[in-house]
Structures are given as structure tokens and as C-alpha cells.
Amino acid sequence: MTTAAEAPRPSRRPRSGMDANPVLRWLRANLFSSIPSSIITLLLLALFVKMIASFAQWGTWDAVWTVPGNDTSACRAARGIGACWAVIPEKYRFILFGTYPYDQQWRPALATLLFIALFYVSCLRRFWRRELVLIWAVMLSLIGLLMWGGVPGLPFVSQERWGGLPVTLILATFGLAFGFPLGILVALGRGSKLPAIRSLCVLYVELIRGVPLISLLFMASVMFPLFMPDGVNIDKLLRAQIAVVLYAGAYLAEVVRGGLQAVPRGQHEAADALGLSYWQKHRLIILPQAIRHVIPPLVNTFIAFFKDTSLVLIIGIFDLLTTAKTAIIDPAWQAFSVEVYIFVAVIYFAFCFAMSRYSRHLEAQGRRGT
Amino acid sequence: MRFSLQNEQFRGLLWQIAVVAIAVAVVAWLWSNAVHNLSVRRISTGFAFLGREAGMPIVDTWLAYTPKDTYLRAFMVGIVNTLRIAVIGIVLATIVGTLVGIARLSSNWLLSRLAAIYVEVLRDIPPLLQLLFWYVLMQGLPLARTAWTPIDGVFISNRGLIVPSIPLDGGQLWVIGSAVLGFVLFYMLRRRLIALQIHDGRPCRSWPYGLLLVIAAPALLSWLLGVTWTVTLPELRGFNFVGGWTFAPEYFALLIALVTYTSAFIAEIVRSGIQAVPRGQWDAAVALGLRRSFVLKQIVLPQALRVIIPPMTSQYLNLTKNSSLAVAIGYQDIVSIANTTLNQTGQAIESIALIMAVFLTISLGISLFMNWYNAHIALVER
User: Fold this and answer.
1) Would residue B54 count as lying in a domain?
2) Mutation choice for B interface testing from A24, A204, A214, A358 by most B CBs within 10 A
3) For A75-84, what is each residue's pLDDT tens digit?
4) Which of A154, B161, B176, B337 has its CA 20 to 30 A from that of B41?
């Protein structure tokens, strides 16, 4: 097997003519450097071309792009041969925004844009300061106002009607916004000298990390009502949100703990020598350094949450994946779930890929020491 | 100790008392609410319900089970189902992930680009979505009547994969057990022989012993015990297959989704592990005139393992926890069975406590094993 770009390649004798052409030289160096390598290249090429060709044929030439009304007979005829992309224009409003009142759907659309703007601003280095917390608070309340409404001009829409992409974004973002302070507190508690507080924090983190998110969500949906006094009824979305926050808190606590451990002891000692209190010391000296250390893993954790919010499907909350699954319950379109799943996968991929690119960019910057 | 707020020890004590008091108060409040609510709903707490008849059908099982069995038995079936997806998933994900990780570092441009695409695409799509996708594809397989038969006795249809079975009773199990034992003995012997070779430099072939222990001895035992090995071919009767071993489509969809998703992460871990091995190790090995595959296997990977094992452990734990996604497609793992139990009996606290206990035990088991392995391969320094 040809492995490891790291391995030094044996130097080749210069051959005039062949090596003069940069394209040929590149091909020879990267695709046909040895006989096994050439065999792998040809095999992969054959396989890849065949797969791409059949996928392209299914996805474009043989696909059905539009159908008149709800009449899917053209799609049915092409079943197994070509994709039925007609399902997307028919259902995309439902997939993206769920059962939100149709004429009001500009509101979740705007909320989604606000979320994206919020993420974008948070990624810019010059906004990494205390005011960012304020920006988050303002933006999240604005999004809440937009989704709920209840002020003149914006009729009230209850959470039961929310759905699709905004719900996914809400679960992930609010999970982070509330899980992060919780995580910081727990991380501090875990590193504390006080045994009772430390063991409580360890218990919390290990219990949550030891079980699947699904069991926490089940807990939120079936056990939570049991734990509440009579007459107190908390909305299903909020219950799921609480489960996501608790889950996020445990994982973020571990990330922050890593950052805390990376802060040199001298910083603690210097802060103590200045006579700062415990909270002053952490707020002003330790945490700003610790969090800067762990921004790339924080982004990775956020990507994980973003994907994990899809699990709320199992307790019947209308996030992006659930609306997609519901959209194809419609008998006329039932057979075309693959197309819908691909559509949703592209949306998830776009968000996660952008974030993972950003995280890699940060890591590269960190290595350069900027 | 001075009882003043200026005293650090005293303040620490106050903090601890306050936090513990709040925690105890919250738990007590939740508990009293739960006790009240349960008594209103006439649900008795405790694990007595485990002895009652479950009455839930379980389709895909390795343990003998009928709906007349108890809840306890149903839970056992669920645990076995979780373990069989987790263990096989971990093994396959490790193999696929390692290959993809190595491919990503290949000097062949096409291979490394394709591996990178594999990693990027699979990592950035939620596992549940991937699972649903594979499950839909499985349902698109031909019906049982028109099943696809690559070789005689093997059927691939929307009922899953059906292969010929070999009935396993006492005798056969003894023979298989002796083969496993032979393998363990062979492994230990081989290590001993290698140690001897390192000691006195004389090469000693180990494979004849392997042949003897793993193949010949069990065969002899089989002949002595007079064990018969019959193969039952599955056949289509009516709408379903009779005989043979069935692997349900749910199981396969879950296995494929977990393996592809986790292998993308494992590939990245393997890649960074290999890159963490200093370049001088490659150079030195190549200077000795060793082949590249040999260098990778004998020199680089053992060193990379030290970097790879700790993050790999958390991927194994993730795979095990993600196996609970099974509930979305109706593969009956422990979470799915506990959920059905919960709906049938209303024993919410007990069911969820059982899920947690099972997963904490599995997680602890994996962690312990990986820590042991990590200590085993750790660099022994002076």
C-alpha cells in the first residue's frame, strides 16, 4: 500500500522531455509515482467515475424537477431511475419552517438570518470582548420577540407551531448560551479545593456524559412532568431545551476545564498576591486566558450540539429533521424520502462545514501563535 | 478556625454548606413531587414490575424470547442487542477508520482527496439523518419474493440478510470454544517465541503451532465427540423465510450508519496520531532500507497508538451511546425496550434508571479496557 505523505520519496532521475511539462510532472508525482500507486489511481478513478456518473444521471438528467400540482405520476414513473426533486419546491416551506402560520413565515426566516449574523459576528476576532455577551443577549431576545410576537404588527405564535430550521438553531444556540455559563461554573467547581462542591460537579459531569442524550430527552419528556408539582406544566420545547442545556453544560465544562488547566500556576499566584478575591481572580485573570485557549474545541463542541439537536425527533419536537420526516408522510410524496433527506443533509452540512472550517482556521492561527 | 468571613477556610465551609443544602433541597423537592404524582397515578415504585409478563414482541433477538416472558428477560434481550451493535460497530469502525486515516496521508493525490471527502461529508451530517437515510435505502431493497440471491442460500431483501445457519447445541459449542481457547494459547505462545527470538536471535516459526491449536485440535475434538455439522438452508415459504440466520434491515442500517459516522472521526484521530510521530522516525527507518508498509506497521503505528488511544476511547463511548438512535428505526436495543416498558407500565423512573445503569456500566467497561490497553502500550522509560 502506498502510504504516508510524510515518507521521503526516493528521488527520481531527471528525465528531459517528460518533466518539462508541469502537468505531466504533477501527475507522475501525485498519481503514478509507483506501480501500486498507479493501480490504486486507476481503480479509484474507474470506481469514482462510475459512481459519479450514475449519481449524476439519477440526480440531474433522469430527474423530475417539477410536477403539475400534487400529481406525482411522472415521479412514480421515474422511480428507481431518476430523482424526484419536485418534492423540494413543493415542501420546502414546511421543511424549513414547520407549521408556522404560512403568511408569517418571513419571521422565522428573518430569525434564521439573525442567527447566522450572530454566529458570523461571534467569529470575528475583534468582537471577542465583554460586549459580545451583550450582543448575544440583545440578539437572542430579538429572535424570541420575532418568533413569539404578541406586539402590535406581530401576531402571537405559540411554540407548538414553531418548527424546522429555527427550532434546530434555537435548541443549539440557547443550549450553548445557557450551557456555557453553567459549564464554566461546573468547571470551576471541579477544580475547586472544596471537596463537597468538587464531588457534586464530578457527579453531574460523569452522570450526564455517561448516558446517551436520548435518555436525557426521554427524561425531559416523560419524567419531568412527574417531578413538577400539580398544575405546573412546562412546554415540551422548553423541556427539551432544558435537557439540551444540561447536556451541553456537562460537555462544555470538560472543555473549559481543559482551558483552566492550561493557565500557568503563576497567573493564580500573581492574582492572589494582588489580593483579588476568588471571583475577581477568575473573572479578570484566569477565565479570559482559559477560554481563549479552548475556542477551537468549543467550536467543535458546538458542531456536535448542532447535530445532536436532531435527536429531539424521537420525542416529537419539530426540528429540521422532524419536519423533513413529516413532510414525506403525505401519501403523494411518500416514496421520495431520499430526495428530502439529501436536501436536509445539505443544510446540516453547510452549517457544520462552515463551522469546522472556521475551527480549523483558528487552530492554524493558534499554531502560528497569533 | 476563626468563625469570621475574613477566614478563607470558614468561607469555604459556608460555600459548601450552601451548595449542598441547595442541591439537597432541590432533589428533595423533586422527589416529594414525584412521590405525590406517582401516588395520584397509582404507580407503585420499585423494580417489582420486572417479574411481570412483558407482552411486548421483540423481532430481532439472539436470546430466546417470547412476549410471554418477563420484563427482566426483555431487558436482557435489549442489553444483548445493544452490545451486539456496539461491539461489532466498534470493531468495524476501527478498521474502516484506520484505513481511511492512512489513506488520507497517502502520497497518491486521488486516494487522499477521496478519503478527505469521506471524512468531511460523513462528519458534518447528523448521525440520526444518516441512519434514516440508510434505513430508507434498505426498505428499497426487493421484496422477499423477488429477493436477490448472490449465492445459493443467501437472500438479500427488504427483510434483511438471510444466510444458511448451522444449529449450535452442546457439541458444536464445545468445538468452537476449543478453537477460541486454541487461538488464545497460540497468541500467548507466539509472544513467548518472539521474546525467545529477541533473546537468542534464532528465528522460530510459529504458524505450525497455530495450525495445530486452532484447526487440528478442534477438528480432532469434533471427530472424537462425533459432532455433526449440518447446514440449514433458508427457504421462502409464503411471504417469509424459514430457517437460516436473519440479520434484520434495522440492524444493518444502524450498523452502517454508526460505522461510517464514527469511522470519519477515527480517521482524523489516526491521521493526527501518525502525524504526531516525528519525521526522524520515518527517515531513520527508511535509511535502514525497510519497506514503507513495514515502517508504517512496525515503527510508526505503535508510536502513533500512544497518541491515538485516549481520543479513540471517547469515540468508542460515543458509538455506544449513539447506538441508542436505534429507537428511531425500531431496532430494539435497551433504550427502545425501556421506552416501551415505560409506556406500558408507567414506571418512568425505574426504566430510565435502568438505561442509565446499563450505559454507565458499558462506558465504565470500555474505559477500563482502554485504560488497561493504554498502560500496556505506553512508552516504558527508564
Assistant:
1) no
2) A214
3) 777 777 777 7
4) B337
